[in-house]
């Protein structure tokens, strides 16, 4: 069985192309079945995320044209697709899938979402019957490798994005985020992402203030929050435990005096400020106030960079785990592939044994049934002992991918089988000669002078 992966990702293709090829959950089953119908494909699975579109297939040796399938399916010019698509075959395909599942091929190395996305694609393919044999074992191997990476390294323990760093810092300040209120000042993408992360990790309600109130309303609706007029900020800012600012203001929106007022109204309960704006929205001097924790974009980036260095060290350990798991799985595949050869060798040697017993049947006619059983058992035991070392050598060569040894051992048995066949033919010819010493000519048979069915004269 052969494995093939074709795809493109954030490293090889721009977002404009990835958008055109994105496969939503509503069409994933249909597209998977279409892929399964391609010539040569025996099993199929598709992984489609915001950062990648990949097709995983097992095939029977007739390699399917997966780039053509993708181009035709989505109406993309093949020449536009070709520079961005990659192909991985067999062992390299195994390694690629293992790295993807372990998040070593992700935009943010160590992120946890990709493993769930791979499992979701696997479940869809299994329910369709598109994954059932070798690919099922391959995916189970990928999940096992990803689990080892998660449990044996710290690759996912530190945040490496601005938004996730904000979540970690908020947890350190408050202990838990449940019930905490967030205030967004400005409706920028970065502050929205930070707020989304905080909400996903347990934060409670959300307030949004923006100079253009309509934008605040639209953003608040996404989180089932409340939009407040920008001019109401001084009166309501104290309601928030976490304030995220990202405006285009050229002056500080929150100064020292405003910060002191917020603390007084909160009765000195701590407040966490994330200032993502450049120029800054929050006066950096308020960091001197007790109970206020202020981080600007540089502070967050420094934490993220330090965490990224830690992840890079862990990624090296993770790569070593993936290399070992890839080799282990590939050995397993090679060992499975040798099974028909082993069965063939055993069948051929058993055939030789039976032939030799048949040739010796005249000599064994005087033996009792018990003695004949003993002879059968003896020859079978000798055959198994003779085969033991060659079969073990075949298995070892298969596990280690030693093609030259496989060929050499296989050739030995092939020659034995050829020699045995020649010997069988010679024996049969000798038996034929005994029954009819010389082949008579048609004319002599017709005249009655010679016949294979003649009987001796009395």
Please name the defining characteristics of this protein.
458 residues; alpha/beta; Beta Polymerase, domain 2; Rossmann fold; 6-stranded parallel sheet; 4-stranded antiparallel sheet; 56% helix; 12% strand; elongated; disordered C terminus
Describe this structure in words.
This protein is α/β, with parallel strands linked by helices and 458 residues long. It has three domains: 2-152, 2-Layer Sandwich (Beta Polymerase, domain 2); 162-304, NAD(P)-binding Rossmann-like Domain (Rossmann fold, 3-Layer(aba) Sandwich); 341-361 and 384-451, no CATH class. Helix content is 56%, strand content 12%. The protein has 17 helices and ten strands. The protein has helices spanning 15-21, 28-36, 66-74, 78-81, 90-101, 113-128, 134-152, 162-174, 189-200, 213-222, 233-236, 256-265, 297-337, 339-359, 369-399, 403-435, 442-447, and strands spanning 2-9, 41-48, 52-59, 86-89, 182-185, 206-209, 226-228, 242-245, 271-275, 292-296. The strands form two sheets. Strands 7-6-5-8-9-10 form a six-stranded parallel beta sheet. It has a four-stranded antiparallel beta sheet with strand order 2-3-1-4, sandwiched between helices. α9 links the parallel β5 (182-185) and β6. Residues 417-421 and 434-458 have low confidence and may be disordered.
